[in-house]
User: Fold these one by one.
Assistant:
Number 1:
Amino acid sequence: MNKILAIANQKGGVGKTTTAVNLAASLAATNRKVLLVDLDPQGNATTAAGLKENSPNTLYNLFFENTKISECIYKSSDGYDVLPGNQELLALEVGIREKNQQAFLKKELNTLGDSYDYTIIDTPPTLNQLTIEALFAASGTLIPLQCEYYSLEGVTGLMQTIQSLADKNLSSNRVLGIVRTMVDMRNNLAKEVSDELESHFSHLVFNTLIPRNIKLAEAPSHGISGVKYMPSSYGAKAYLALAGELIRKVEYV
Ligand SMILES: Nc1ncnc2c1ncn2[C@@H]1O[C@H](COP(=O)(O)OP(=O)(O)O)[C@@H](O)[C@H]1O
Ligand SMILES: [Mg+2]
């Protein structure tokens, strides 16, 4: 069964795209078939996936021009497929609302059947219609979070949104867990926030900590994931471990 997972947090710069790309690459490395969907008009995940095409088809073409979904899917350089995004998604966001096409993405992904084991959706740093589309489509959400003082603000809003969609039977999405990103345990505040997360949301926090690691930041400029760019780096190892933890969570239940 295709497991559709959204990577979301309304805050920018918390490691959503890095998590989406490296999880996609890590899952692909275990021979699982993976599709990465870039729902952020900034298209960072698309760049990091190293697409060869200059102006690829996106969900914009699918929505407005009836392009087939198979014609919007490309190969990444890391063994997973990618449904790219770019600034055209800004118009898609408006289009979905104006034409009342909520859950458009969910319907489209359903047409792919079981072509994939995992579909990972990277989302923009806002709770707009694009993010809602991801929350509708997904059966689980991962929330990357930087352990800083205000980092939990906003996350509660996101959790409430996911819960209210489920309460209204609009989706079966649930929060799979919070992923602590860019962790530097020499930083006392980060350690405090991290410990607090563990005590307050113990069942909702992934054990794997993603360390701050320069290799993860360098990789996108080479059009590959950190996992492939420098497999021996702490960052790569952490994302591979996170993928293992995720697999245990969603496949062995
Ligand atoms: N674990 C990490 N170590 C070092 N740099 C990171 C790490 N995770 C993300 N970054 C860098 O931090 C910035 C923001 O990360 P990104 O994944 O783009 O966040 P978001 O998608 O939430 O905006 C990027 O420049 C990225 O390369
Ligand atoms: Mg991003």
Number 2:
Amino acid sequence: MQEKKEKGFPQKGLGFEKTLEEVKELSHQGPDYKKGKTWGLVYYASKEHNQFLQKVYSQFSSQNALNPMAFKSLKTMEKEVIEMTTSLFHGGSEAVGVMTSGGTESILMAILAYRQRARKLKPWVRRPEIIAPESVHVAFNKACKYYDIKLVLAPLNKDYTVDVNWVKKKINRNTIAIVGSAPQYPHGVIDDIEALGKLAQKKKLPLHVDACLGGFLLPFLEKIGEPIRAWDFRVPGVTSISADLHKYGFAAKGASTLTFRSMDYMKHQFFVYTDWPGGVYASPAMLGTRSGGPIAAAWAAFKSLGEEGYLENAKKIIETTKELKEKINQLPELEIIGSPVASIIAYCSKDSAVNIYTVGDYLMQKGWHVDKNQMPESLHAIVGLNNAGFVDEFITDLKEAVIYARENPEKAQEGGAAMYGMISKMPIRGVIKVSVQKMMEQMYGPEGAMPDEVDENSLQAKAQKVGLQVLEVKDKIKDSIKGRLPF
Ligand SMILES: Cc1ncc(COP(=O)(O)O)c(C=O)c1O
């Protein structure tokens, strides 16, 4: 746990040297991603690549892409990043796009563009609706919450792709767009974008493909012969794609792309205001000031690696993923969920005596960072270059973790396992929401609690108590109704 520092603005500066010492201390907190300990969050290519990105980033970090007239080199680099991206996604000569700060901003802007477009073209729509798979990234829920759009979540087929027939049935006069993922985060599968594309064309609706994770990996996996189904602008109905440079684009953090089939769609996201005393203001996406760092670093990543470099990376990533999948599947207690084709997997326990969240907690104690999924309860892995060469070490710890979970069933009622177990089983989702809201208030309140200081147990107990009370009341109501019914 971090030592509590005195609050408030420092009166006397520490100077560069002392501050750097503190920076060094802080930089040691967190999982050792350079040694493959993270399964997601970090997309670290190599020490050399990182140093190269830092060098480019620092040259442009003070420059501001807010005003393309002032820093023309940033405009040039952004334009070239978008051109390289649209060519990779087979966008054709009309394709356009912008760079954003990350996947969430790309998604927020795509949804905004479609809402603004609908306001022009479908004036009868009072509350717009967007249909997306249940597995779609939560940034779509966020976007719809921010813009007061109804998000209609479509169920998944047995293979975890979206049920396109269900989507078809739910399209109505308020629908303004449909969404698919390539691949989706929870299980790593690619939705049937061709079927969604046909539907979108038939119903004259835009189709957004969220390729934040896969955008800069799938094209190269396809080129090395992996069975990747069509997902990009080659599918006629696809009108926009979000793809993150700071994931498999191996750029510095703070960089994503949002590309459109043509300006007909993208123009709706621009903000232009002409009556501000500060001058005429126009911006292409959410941010005002935009550091040149992420733009320049993304441009430099593309230029320095080229197709050859990305192909080589894709090969290493898919080989590491296959090795990981094979070795997890060899463990009799565990199995990979569905049939993920790229580098994202989820694995669950098929042995009721092995709690998968206890397995996760054990791995965390061993220094691995693994994310926990719900519905079904599972652990998650996004395989990166930094994981290459560390699969055996991980599997050794995973085997130990499985034994530990079996021998210590009570651990399922403690710590993260208990918390996630409760979250995943609780039928009354509002209770979870209130608890998490309270955790956020503790973390961002005046106390500024660190995540491990948040009083998880009392929140969990409270949530459990409320949840159980509600369940009891529900059961009582059911019983009393039953008593009065003639059967
Ligand atoms: C499929 C998908 N879409 C969108 C996002 C959001 O990206 P970001 O965290 O950069 O905002 C993610 C992040 O993991 C993702 O996996």
